[in-house]
Write a structure and sequence with these properties.
The complex is a heterodimer of chains A (327) and B (343). Chain A has 327 residues and is of the alpha/beta class. Chain A has helices at residues 6-20, 44-48, 60-72, 91-98, 101-104, 135-138, 151-163, 176-179, 212-226, 244-254, 269-281, 304-310, 314-326; strands at residues 2-5, 24-28, 53-55, 76-81, 113-119, 144-146, 167-173, 181-184, 197-200, 205-209, 231-235, 238-240, 257-264, 290-294. The longest helix of chain A is centred in the N-terminal third of the chain and has 15 residues, at 6-20. Chain A is globular. Chain B is an alpha/beta fold. Chain B has a single domain (18-318), classed as Rossmann fold (3-Layer(aba) Sandwich), CATH 3.40.50. Chain B contains 10 helices and 7 strands. Classes of the chains: A alpha/beta (327), B alpha/beta (343).
């Protein structure tokens, strides 16, 4: 085992998959010469050359649409959208081409590709460089939506996604890039998609969350443990289609569930999870399913005091969990 | 609208290298497209299939002439009104009819609505209905050919209305930068549903847009089959040999509404009549008569053969089974609907 950062995990996965399979190539804004605005694609141009590491114009519809076309021709494109906020510019090919090509053609045409999208707050990026917007795509069947929280999952899930046959949106959280380090196996490994992961077992209540909020939930769990509240943290990892089985099993076990995410509360992933828990395992619940999410304002106000107000954090999670435990 | 390209009173003569046999085959595809299209319009009016129908009547020469120069491994990224191109790519009529009738044995298994045909075997990408969406996709196909050093071409179609979309600009700009093996064919039929071309753009020739991307653009009479063929064939050869993309605007006209539920009463009857006199089938038949390449009686025999294929295809498609309701859950992912999949 080795210890690497979250962004190193992504770079390693890309390079290893490009070495393994010559059909894999990357394209996007600043991905080649500059190595990506966050350096996730650093070194790829030197190793794989300009035909497989392609700097594009500022044109998200082209980036995504061209990847769809290349995928339909048997390539394995890994396009990048450097800020999730700019995914709006690629909305048409993401929703109408990527997500629906297999369905509308009766599986005659398929779209095996991985769209990497850099997302997330706590970085002082303001309204157009900070949001998490997985909720825009959560209601689009046909897409696989991933949101890993650790270097291990980031690397193993990216490899699984590139090797798969489906169109994947791979959200990578900017705050995690260099802050989060973790162990990864030395050799090649993959992490299965569609499976949640219990990052901390517990018995009092369950927190279901993903990405940056996994780490904030783990921090909160440490504090709550001092108070005798034993929190189970379920990391969804795959948001669409999400792991109902593991979430429902944890809900049955603890009887109390809090769903946490960074995106605005209304229309968020949390509502769907809460509703499903209540539909499926209501008789096991000892309290209404709680939600802690970003407020219903456009993410992300820039002034530091307002960004802090927006972001769920360990303290807010602990307060909400404490109340749930006492219910 | 620019009319100077239409001033030639008779069709172009056959380009060098186009044999009499080629010219008879071109007629076969042209009249096959017309007969199929008119028959499908009738089928819709008879209530034989749901949804609607998007006919390409009046635009056959632009579709047939564009695709005749393609090779088997080349790909078409269609808009939706280039039936002539799909027929010319060799797709049998029964393939279209199974799709229109939304039967279980259609290649899309009844998922897409009429005229959104696709075929991996014949290199026809199944389109979405968002105009210009196929252009970035077609550019990505050409990018794949370039990366793999394959001598293949992607021909992407767009209407003049679709050129207003951002995807048109993003796609052609990128194709120009990388000299991608694309041929862009703009079917300018003067109307984007009910919006006339003059409200689509201030420019008169849509091919002028190519200047902005650093590659050639040309506007031609899209109802002149041989002219379309020779112009587009040159662009195909250029793209295949690494010479980069071309934008070809085919000036043409759709005789009927955007679809069969559109009465098209926003157009002056005189305009429609004027264009019907420039019927691409009639113009090409005049060429065949003048050159003696194909007699009227030979043409009648060809039509009888097509009618036979058509009626057999209709009977087969219409008697094919409908999909089951639960088939709606298939084709979402590569794995079954079970959410606990492993990638």
């Amino acid at each position: 085992m080795r210890v690497i950062t979250y962004i190193e995990a992504i770079t390693e996965a890309l390079a290893e998959e490009m070495r393994r399979d010559e059909r894999v190539f990357v394209l996007g804004e600043d991905v080649a010469l500059y190595g990506g605005v966050f350096k996730a694609t650093k070194g790829l141009l030197d190793e794989f050359g300009p035909l497989r590491v392609i700097d594009t114009p500022i044109a998200e519809e082209l980036i995504v649409g061209a990847a769809v076309g290349a995928a339909a021709m048997g390539m394995r494109p890994v396009p990048e959208i450097q800020f999730s906020d700019f995914a709006s510019c690629g909305f048409d090919p993401i929703v109408q081409q990527m997500a629906r090509l297999r369905y509308r053609s009766g599986s005659a045409w398929t779209c095996p590709m991985v769209l990497r999208i850099c997302c997330g707050g706590e970085i002082g990026g303001g309204i157009y460089h900070s949001q998490t917007n997985e909720n825009w795509f959560f209601g689009t069947p046909g897409l696989v939506v991933l949101a890993p929280s650790t270097p291990h999952d980031a690397k193993g899930m990216l490899k699984s996604a590139i090797r798969g046959e489906d169109p994947v949106i791979y959200f990578e959280h900017k705050r995690l890039y260099r802050w989060i380090k973790g162990q990864v196996p030395d050799g090649d490994f993959t992490v299965p998609l569609g499976r949640a992961d219990i990052k901390r077992p517990g018995s009092t209540l369950t927190i279901v969350t993903y990405q940056l909020m996994v780490h904030r939930a783990l921090e909160a769990a440490e504090v709550l443990a001092q108070e005798g509240i034993d929190v189970e943290v379920v990391d969804l990892r795959t948001l669409l289609p999400w792991d109902r089985e593991m979430v429902l099993e944890s809900a049955r076990k603890t009887g109390k569930v809090l769903v946490v995410h960074e995106s605005p509360k209304t229309g968020g992933v949390g509502g769907e999870i809460a509703a499903t828990i209540m539909e499926e395992v209501f008789d096991y619940l000892d309290a209404p399913v709680g939600r802690l999410a970003g407020p219903d304002i456009p993410p992300m106000p820039f002034a530091p005091v307002m960004e802090k107000e927006y972001m769920p954090d360990a303290e807010k999670i602990a307060a909400k969990a404490r109340a749930l435990a006492a219910y | 609208m620019t009319t100077d390209v239409l001033n030639n009173s008779k069709p172009a003569s056959a380009p060098a290298g186009l044999s009499a046999e080629d010219q008879r085959r071109l007629y076969y595809f042209l009249i096959k497209t017309r007969l199929f299209d008119e028959r499908c319009r009738r089928l819709f009016k008879q209530g034989r299939f749901p949804g609607t129908y998007f006919s390409a009547v009046g635009q056959e020469a632009a579709g047939v002439g564009s695709a005749y120069g393609l090779l088997k491994d080349d790909i078409i990224a269609p808009s939706h009104r280039e039936l002539g191109a799909y027929v010319t790519k060799g797709i049998p009529l029964v393939h279209f009819l199974k799709q229109i009738f939304a039967r279980a044995n259609s290649s899309d298994k009844g998922k897409s609505h009429p005229c959104h045909y696709g075929s991996t075997e014949h290199g026809l990408y199944t389109p979405a209905s968002t105009m210009a969406g196929q252009l970035p996709v077609g550019v990505g196909m050409a990018l794949a050919f370039k990366i793999r050093k394959e001598p293949r071409v992607c021909m992407a179609f767009i209407g003049e209305g679709g050129t207003s979309r951002g995807g048109f600009h993003e796609a052609l700009n990128f194709a120009g930068i990388h000299d991608l093996p694309n041929v862009f064919v703009c079917m300018n039929n003067l109307w984007a549903e009910s919006v006339p071309a003059k409200l689509q753009s201030r420019i008169e020739k849509y091919s002028d847009r190519a200047k902005a991307y650093g590659f050639p653009g040309v506007t031609i009479d899209g109802n002149d089959l041989l002219l379309v063929y020779s112009t587009v064939k040159a662009a195909i050869d250029k793209a295949r040999s690494g010479g980069g993309p071309t934008l070809i605007e085919c000036l043409t006209y759709r005789w009927y509404g955007h679809s069969e539920i559109d009465p098209a009463n926003y157009r002056a009857p005189e305009e429609v009549e004027r264009w019907k006199k420039r019927d691409p089938v009639l113009l090409y038949e005049q060429h065949l008569d003048a050159t003696g390449i194909m007699s009227a009686s030979d043409r009648e025999e060809v039509k009888r053969g097509i009618d036979k294929e058509l009626e057999e295809a209709i009977a087969f498609a219409e008697s094919s089974p409908h999909p089951e309701a639960e088939d709606a859950y298939d084709d979402v992912y590569s794995f079954s609907p079970n959410p606990n999949f492993t990638g």
